[in-house]
Task: structure prediction
Amino acid sequence: MTMPQSSAQTTSDDIDFSAFSRGLWIDGKWRAASSGASVNVTDPSTENTITTVPDATVEDAMSAVEAAAAAAEGWRTTPPRKRSEILRRCFELMIERKEMLAKLISIENGKALRDARGEVAYAAEFFRWNAEEAVRITGEFGTAPSGTNRIIVDYQPIGICVLITPWNFPAAMATRKIGPALAAGCTVILKPATETPLTAYALASIYEEAGVPPGVINVITTTSPGQVTSAMLADPRVRKLSFTGSTGVGRILLAEAAKHVISCSMELGGNAPFVVFDDADLDAALDGAMVAKMRNAGEACTAANRIYVQSGIYDAFAKGLTERMANLRVGAGVEDDTECGPMITRKAVEKIDRLVEDARSRGAKVLCGGSPTSGSGFFYPPTVLGDVVPDADMAHEEIFGPVAPLTKFETEDEAVRAANDTEYGLAAYVFTKDLARGMRVSSRIDAGMIALNRGLVSDPAAPFGGMKQSGLGREGGQHHGISEFMEAKYIATSI
Result:
């Protein structure tokens, strides 16, 4: 493993951070927080402060709701073709500026530049996909079985939406919500994570240039998310909450939304099993494991969190994965040759270390990595642990880091039981040359998304979401994502 090297240059000279920290984006204007307070944005590669952004108050949040309300009627009556063209322009502008956006993500998030470039392409695709979906919203017309009336179903925008996104994919998690909301005819208030606000504000400039009217998209950052979100949800004009984040926070937000009977979409935590059978193509399984585990350095809700390998291939798989993980270059995200960047905070490193030490205390073998690095930056080396027991803490908590825990299994039933031994059900991965087995196991695993013989499952054209404690609703897909932002209105007529 190549460890991070000290460097005087870990940011890009061609990025003017002041351009993305001009204020809160409310009603098409940049404005300071009403309190005048600000939030530091930290580069996790160096622990240096990059810049500051406004720290919104409840007053600011309600200003955003007012702006969204004022723009609501105009946007819902905007012809679908016009909405489509604006979304398409958002896609084009993101692609034109993909390198700048990727560098910005790498600096404030720490992810490797190659991963950041992939995120920008993925994020932009939600605008292109929903530009196409915007003109395909249709209703229903039929005759009641009794023959006494006609059934007409019209799909209308649900109303003002509060969108809350995490730090690990600051562009994609925003566009995955904003794209379908705007396509449906809704106005929105986006609250991005305070760890990675610059990407959200950079995208706000793109929305303006693409022709999104003032008030249709509002962006606010705050260190008081509970108060701010509660105030917005209490406003009767707000009719939708879409949240991506931890299951714990999701439960709190669901309870808050329940007070006001607000529609919720929840994309929550994951504990993805990665199951490798003896008959799997070893190289393909290793390739898939590196993608499923190390995309964004493991800081993903879909990351392979528990790797189950059948006994006949276990040793070869462990050897191959260890070699690949040990050879990854660790460094600042914006350095071109970085393959594994830093974690988002010191606290994240401490959590990973706690989980690794717990597994070791229960008999796990450290095959590579296994302890935090010294020096500046929130780095944890790519780590492989062998013989991780089922009761290890990391088998039940999201690792959210570059740690691959390996556990041996013997039978298909054993693998399925282990895969389902979790409160989560977001993603799962299955590798086998036997297609019948692959489909059978995929149907038996309790997860909303299954990657069969591949390490990447996400696609804007496919429904993203989980079962059990991993969430409610779906994002993306043919009509799935956009339907979350619409209400079905039934009209009965005798005509």
